[in-house]
Write a structure and sequence with these properties.
The complex is a heterodimer. By secondary structure, chain A is mainly β. In chain A, 0% of the residues lie in helices and 44% in strands. Chain A has a single domain, classed as Rieske Iron-sulfur Protein (3-layer Sandwich), CATH 2.102.10.10. Chain B folds into five domains: 168 residues, 3-Layer(bba) Sandwich (FAD/NAD(P)-binding domain), CATH 3.50.50; 114 residues, 3-Layer(bba) Sandwich (FAD/NAD(P)-binding domain), CATH 3.50.50; 71 residues, BFD-like [2Fe-2S]-binding domain (Arc Repressor Mutant, subunit A, Orthogonal Bundle); 57 residues, no CATH class; 156 residues, Sulfite Reductase Hemoprotein, domain 1 (2-Layer Sandwich), CATH 3.30.413. In chain B, strands 3-2-1-7-19 form a five-stranded parallel sheet, with no helix packed on it. In chain B, helix 1 packs parallel to helix 8, helix 11 packs across helix 14 and helix 12 crosses helix 14. The chains are: A mainly beta, B alpha/beta. At the A-B interface, strand 1, strand 2 and strand 5 of A face helix 18, helix 27 and strand 37 of B. The complex binds siroheme, flavin-adenine dinucleotide, iron/sulfur cluster (SF4) and FE2/S2 (inorganic) cluster.
């Protein structure tokens, strides 16, 4: 099965708030986009593996986000929940163009 | 495919440990349901002794909090007893007529205390010592009565007796044998123990058989077979336990003394297992947690289909948990014709040691006075060590750290949970543990009876060397070893200005902190320098960042302020209109005398605030919540003062103020206290010409009745005292410490003493005024701030693609 990737424009790099999440709504699906302190932009599914908490509203620390519902710690890089919790969320590829436009790649 | 259904009967120590082991092996395999007769989550029964002795509190002995069940998707039915097992249909039935089908059924119903069938045993004031309820009964009686009699001079009886002494009662211990703890100790140790306990104030009646419990409705005394009698207001029976097998018996499951099981804890009925004190393995029934936990492990492996040889029986060891008395015994206690013993009796220091050697192997021990060698002897017996090995080990040592250094890796540290030295050292090294609490969390060591805590502490010292700080101060979180006070001192001294700077300069282990320290630092820094500190929205928990309460589905709750719980038609109309316009999920009157609009979308928040045009109620803030009021003198026939007026004045003054945790106030106008001042952080009660100010009350997780701080005459004085009190709290409490905990920690007398000083009150109020001066109404601020609107409230909606 070949997957086509769709490029979704999220906003300008400088407009993204640092160390905070942004909610992106694509049809029924929600993605949480984070601009980290190191400047990277990361995108993960906006649904905590625990009970579906909205990760975009979480506290960001380094490359992790703490879910606002019950404080699970999730990596925004590989989507893995940190021990002792288990589970993972989908991650999305991010592209930042020279014009500082931020895109995420969603498979269709 | 639907999950396999696992039902556990008995929400106690063995059953829940089995579930924990299963979850470790196969986290998502089973749909788990637990029934427990007691209305609590699983608690540490062993610690009831310490609760009675006053060393710990009932609230601290929970092993698995309610949220543990929830997080592991376990359906718990507390206070519900299983009354019937239909083994053909594989269904259990409860006393609430609930029916639950199972694929696997675990019976872990524990034991019942054995009550001697004496005439009078059903009188008021006769109790066992088995559960929280018994413990509460004893504590209650100790408040009203003087004389207690404990029947039974075994482990449980002596621990109960020590507790009752601590509770201020006079205690007689009645024992049928001629020395104490005869099942665990030899005569020499038993007699030493008796001497020691007599010095502590216990009175012993040995060789006595009770024949009657006297009294009318309530117990008044005991009669003995030799004709003697004593008086008593409380009788504790601690003569033994019987496996709780009635359910199994009625359901046709094979029972002897206990429910008979094989090495895999299987009963004679397919898919039904038994574990814990109710189970009988190889003709043995156990009454200590160590073997029960081993059983739980074996059962978990079996149910999860892991290769295992099964449970093979246990070597027992006992320890008495009475402070100031160290007693330990394990294996064989009395010499036989073909055994030899290594003995040491030091009358001067009151220590005694006997190690029994059977055909060159260590096979039993009794220690009194100095029990350090206990766990070592236990593990030597378990592995069948030769006496030479024991003697050699004795030559190295002593001091704590040397002792643990000389231990081999497989030496047991925690007997209850079967954790050896190697496992603990490995965990300390690989997971960077630095405290006994952390070791407990990761390995279970010291999670049960707690006697091995000092060994765990020695191991930390041995493994971490100078990095280990034994008398642990409480650090802010795992990111640092510094305590709150140290961090605050550093912030002030170095004039740091952002949370990241603090983390950086003070060498946080996690560069950017965690969900505990980020909000805490943000609060401390704002409290220290209200005018200069730049609040960091990214360091705030979502509710405070968004100025609304997040709901489980990611929508928000909106609670506008209603000063003193008083509203008017115009505000109500605005609320009604907004509720309709934004199609809110529910309009609800809160417990805080105002209205909550629930289920508002994040992107609608600014609009609904603008439409409402009312100030935020801060229902989300670690700060001032509500000031509840009663109707007061304006309307009520009992009212002595204008409670609504004062309530509104307080709320208008302190609204928007942040604190270490939320704080709630109330004002009532007579002692009927309709605004519930007894459970508020600040509760004010008006009397004729007087206002009473109560503080430190809490109506939440841990109820606490407020203490009277002061009585004053005028409203202005109330404002002054409350301001000073709140500022003192703001400056000294730990982040997330409610006033109830803070008052407990500082002591109400100390708080009174500090605030009694008018000059101090003025200083606190001056700093309070500074903090109040920078407060802005957050909703109107947000709707006028383009950046905030964009950064926090906007969602990016990606248009649906039509082409494919
Ligand atoms: C809305 C309200 C329930 C209601 O419908 O009545 C409520 C709702 C919440 N309470 Fe409460 N509490 C509400 C009155 C209370 C009361 C009663 C009172 O204030 O008179 C108490 C006990 C009194 C007390 O605090 O001493 C109360 C004790 C708690 C606690 C336990 C606090 C404690 O110290 O033990 C928490 C947890 C916490 O704060 O950490 C909590 C936490 C919460 C949170 C904020 C949970 C959370 O963090 O998300 C709830 C938000 C629900 C949601 O989905 O929006 N709520 N909560 C009440 C709001 C009152 C208001 O107008 O501001
Ligand atoms: C004061 C005291 C001090 C102790 N000190 C020590 C010590 O120092 N060291 C040590 O190792 N051990 C000690 N013990 C013993 C230890 O607490 C027990 O061995 C252990 O709790 C037994 O675990 P269990 O799960 O088999 O039974 P329990 O912990 O008793 O759990 C059984 C649970 O099942 C529930 N139940 C029963 N029937 C039903 C039913 N039909 N439906 C639903 N629920 C049901 C009961 O209400 C109970 O909550 C002490 C015990 C006491 C009372
Ligand atoms: S509103 Fe309060 S009591 Fe109700 S579920 Fe939420 S936190 Fe618990
Ligand atoms: S939903 Fe994320 S931690 Fe519970």
């Amino acid at each position: 099965m070949d997957k086509t990737l769709r490029k979704v424009y999220v906003g300008n790099y400088s407009d993204l708030p640092e160390r905070l999440g942004k909610t992106i709504v694509i049809d029924e699906q929600e993605v949480a986009v984070f601009k980290l302190a190191n400047g990277d932009v990361r995108a993960i599914e906006n649904r905590c593996p625990h009970k579906g908490g909205v990760l975009a509203e979480g506290l960001v620390s380094g490359e992790h986000v703490f879910c606002p519902m019950h404080d699970w710690k999730i990596s925004v890089v590989d989507g893995q929940a940190q021990a002792p919790d288990e589970g993972c969320v989908q991650t999305y590829q991010v592209e930042v163009t020279n014009e500082e436009k931020v895109y995420i790649l969603i498979s269709e | 495919m639907s999950k396999q259904k696992l039902v556990l009967i008995g929400n106690g120590m063995a059953g829940i440990r089995t579930i924990e082991e299963i979850l470790k092996l196969k986290p998502n395999e089973f749909d788990i349901v637990v029934f427990g007769s007691e209305p609590y989550p699983n608690y540490n029964r062993i610690q009831l002794s310490k609760v009675l002795q006053g060393d710990t509190e009932l609230s601290d002995i929970t092993l698995n909090e309610w949220h543990w069940y929830e997080e592991n998707n376990i359906r718990l039915y507390p206070g519900e007893t299983v009354t019937n097992i239909d083994k053909e249909k594989q269904i259990v039935v409860t006393d609430k007529d609930r029916k639950e089908a199972y694929d696997y059924l675990i019976i872990a119903t524990g034991s019942n205390p054995f009550m001697l069938p004496l005439p009078g045993a059903d009188k008021e004031g006769v109790t066992a010592f088995r559960d929280i309820k018994d413990c509460e009964t004893m504590i209650d009686y100790s408040k009203k009565y003087q004389r207690a009699a404990v029947i039974g001079g075994g482990l449980l009886g002596l621990e109960a007796a020590r507790g009752l002494l601590n509770l201020g009662m006079e205690v007689d211990v009645i024992h049928i044998s001629d020395y104490l703890m005869e099942r665990q100790l030899d005569r020499d140790a038993g007699e030493l123990l008796q001497k020691e306990l007599e010095q502590q104030g216990m009175n012993f009646l040995l060789n006595k058989q009770t024949t009657d419990i006297t009294g009318k409705k309530r117990v008044t005394g005991l009669k003995f077979s030799d004709g003697g009698r004593i008086s008593a207001d409380l009788v504790v029976m601690a003569v033994g336990i019987r496996p709780n097998v009635s359910l199994a018996l009625e359901s046709g499951i094979g029972v002897n003394k206990g429910i008979v099981v094989n090495d895999h804890m299987e009963t004679d009925v397919a898919n039904i297992y038994a574990v814990g004190e109710c189970a009988e393995h190889d003709q043995m029934v156990y009454g200590l947690v160590a073997p029960l936990y081993e059983q739980g492990k074996a059962l978990a492996k079996h149910i999860c289909n892991k290769e295992d040889e099964g449970y093979k029986g246990s070597v027992l060891s006992t320890q008495l948990k009475v402070s100031g008395v160290d007693v330990f015994s394990t294996g064989m206690i009395n010499e036989q014709s073909n055994t030899k013993a290594i003995k040491m009796y030091d009358d001067w220091n009151g220590t005694y040691k006997k190690v029994i050697v059977d055909q060159g192997k260590i096979s039993g021990a009794v220690l009194f006075g100095d029990t350090k060698e206990g766990t070592r002897l236990l593990s030597m017996i378990k592995k069948g060590a030769d006496v030479e090995e024991y003697l050699e080990a004795g030559e190295r040592e002593e001091s704590g750290s040397d002792l643990v250094a000389s231990m081999p890796d497989d030496e047991l540290i925690c007997g209850c949970n079967g954790v050896d030295k190697g496992t603990i050292v490995e965990a300390i090294n690989s997971q960077g543990l630095t405290s006994v609490e952390q070791v407990k969390g990761c390995t279970n060591a010291s999670r049960s009876c707690g006697t091995c805590k000092s060994l765990v502490s020695d191991l930390l010292e041995y493994t971490l060397g100078d990095d280990y700080n034994a008398d642990q101060k409480e650090s802010i979180c795992g990111c640092t070893d510094l305590s709150k006070d140290e961090v605050i001192a550093e912030i002030e001294e170095k004039g740091m200005r952002t949370t990241r700077e603090v983390m950086n300069v003070l060498g946080w282990k996690n560069e950017e902190g965690c969900s505990k320290c980020k909000p805490a630092l943000n609060y401390y820094m704002g409290m220290l320098k209200p005018k200069e500190y730049h609040d960091e929205k990214e360091s705030r928990f979502v509710n405070e960042r968004m100025h609304a309460n997040i709901q489980k589905d990611g929508t928000f709750g909106v609670v506008p302020r209603m000063y003193g719980g008083v509203t008017n038609a115009e505000d109500l109309r605005k609320i009604a209109d907004a509720a309709e316009k934004y199609d809110v999920g529910m309009i609800k009157i809160t417990g805080g005398q105002r209205i909550n609009l629930l289920g508002v979308n994040k992107e609608d928040l600014p609009d609904i605030w603008a439409d409402l045009d009312m100030p935020s109620g801060h229902a989300y803030a670690k700060g001032l919540r509500t000031v509840k009021t009663c109707v007061g003198s304006e309307f009520c026939r009992f009212g002595t003062q204008d409670s609504t007026g004062l309530g509104i004045r307080l709320e208008q003054k302190f609204e928007g103020l942040y604190g270490p945790h939320k704080f709630k106030m109330s004002v009532s106008a007579c002692p009927r206290n309709c605004a519930e001042g007894g459970i508020k952080d600040v509760g004010i009660v008006g009397l004729e010409g007087v206002w009473e100010i109560y503080v430190g009350g809490n109506g939440g997780t841990e109820l606490r009745e407020a203490d009277l701080l002061v009585k004053v005459k005028t409203e202005d004085e109330v404002m002054e005292w409350v301001g000073a009190y709140l500022q003192y709290y703001r400056e000294t409490a730990n982040y997330l410490e409610r006033t109830s905990k803070w008052v407990d920690r500082f002591g109400i007398d100390h708080v009174k003493e500090v605030l009694d000083d008018k000059q101090k009150r003025d200083e606190f109020n001056a700093r309070m005024d500074e903090a109040l001066s920078v407060i802005q109404e957050p909703w109107s601020e947000a709707i006028h701030n383009e950046t905030t609107l964009k950064e926090l409230f906007e969602k990016v909606n990606v248009p649906t693609t039509t082409s494919k």
